[in-house]
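Quick note —
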Amino acid sequence: MANFEQETVSTYDELETRIKRIANIGNATGILYWDQQTKMPEGGTPARAKQLSALQSIQHELLTEDRTGELLSELEDENLDVEQSAVVREIRRQYDRAIDVPGELVTEIAETSSEAQPAWQEAKAEDEFETFEPYLDRLRELQIERAEHIAPDKDPYEVMFEDGEPYLPLDTVERIFDELREGLIPLIEDIQEKGADIADDAFAGTYDADVQEAVARDALDVLDYDWNRGRLDTAPHPFMSGTQFDARVTTRYNENDPIGSLTATIHEFGHASYQLGLRDDAYGTPLGDSRSSGIHESQSRFWENHVGRTKTFWELFLPTFKQRFPQADDVTVDEAYEAVNQVFTDNLIRVEADELTYHMHIILRSEIEQEFVAGELDVAEIPARWNELMDDYLGVVPETDSEGCLQDIHWTSRFGGFQNYTVGSVFAAQLWATIEEEIDEPMELIREGNFDPIREWLTENIHQQGQKYTTDELIEEATGEPLTAEYFLDYVTEKYSDIYDLD
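Predicted structure written out below.
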């Protein structure tokens, strides 16, 4: 028996060593992507595309080698503990989704994605969708081909959705979308028709970008961001990249909108908080990796909305803001709270949207993606379809494609991911409701700048769990019930009815 147990441990250890090597290559890829978005010279794209595709090809080759499959088969019937079983389950899922995908296709997707990024930047800057069209169309073809290799009998779009959210069924998300349409559209209409006037111009004026950066750093200091394991930079589209040892935050600055950069920074801090909260001792394994895109987004939306947009946070942070920007000296906490939470019924940009209209942006994008992937929408028809749905859902039409379908970088890399922004918001509200039950006076903690109890709860219940549980299991473990839109709808209805003095 002793020899048999030793053989099993050795097999598991070999599999873990293999997956750690694959993960390290992936993490190196992430650093190259971060550099491309923040520091790389404009002329570096041809080489960077080759570098990224080479690393992703090596990852694919290692994952799909015969030995990986042999190790998984040997461990299939062994008596592993809970954590080992979770690791094997997650590696098995990665292996099964990669084994039938040709390496040449992986390389081409990586190269095309990397080349698409500067094309998107140029298209957005020049307001010329035609510049981006061929890349977007080719990426669709490539991603459909990949999906058909993974699951030939399944809807390709569903396969793409499962890349980021493997254990939460797409029909569950679509049901939540239906509930949000039913609950949010009447609330938005009530605000438009009956909402009281609020201090939406409290931060009107010009705010120097360099000083905005100082304010962003102040906010990260207040939230206790670990500068020893992170940094703040600018990017065309804010994002976070990294691991539990190096989680880097990016933001962007608009001199007419100091709140946009601040909330974006807090949002990306939420992502970084998740990464930095992962288990150090499990680095390189599924136990030291985040659960899914939707769970990741729940952390960023939690910190952005349930912390950064609260009145108590502005009681804490407004004096610091005023020190940096004396022109805001007359702004009161109530005015700051109202300005930060104003509903932009004419807003065109998702990342600048409020908590209500934000989800209309997500829903319309998801619908366009599905139509595009299904072949129901030609690439050249995307701008017109975008404008049509913006008019239907938000009553506003962008004058340029730069403010419309070109506003985000996401389509340079994948399809089927926008839903997770809404999944994250819904789960964040569910998490906050649970925290209110389990932590005494969490709002008072925010007012005092004592974020440790909240962060420790999230670390224990979400971050440190890694991929031990599937998505649905993790949600139930953390909150005691499945994912539901109820808490989010209750939260926004109460909050915005109070702000806009609705009956």
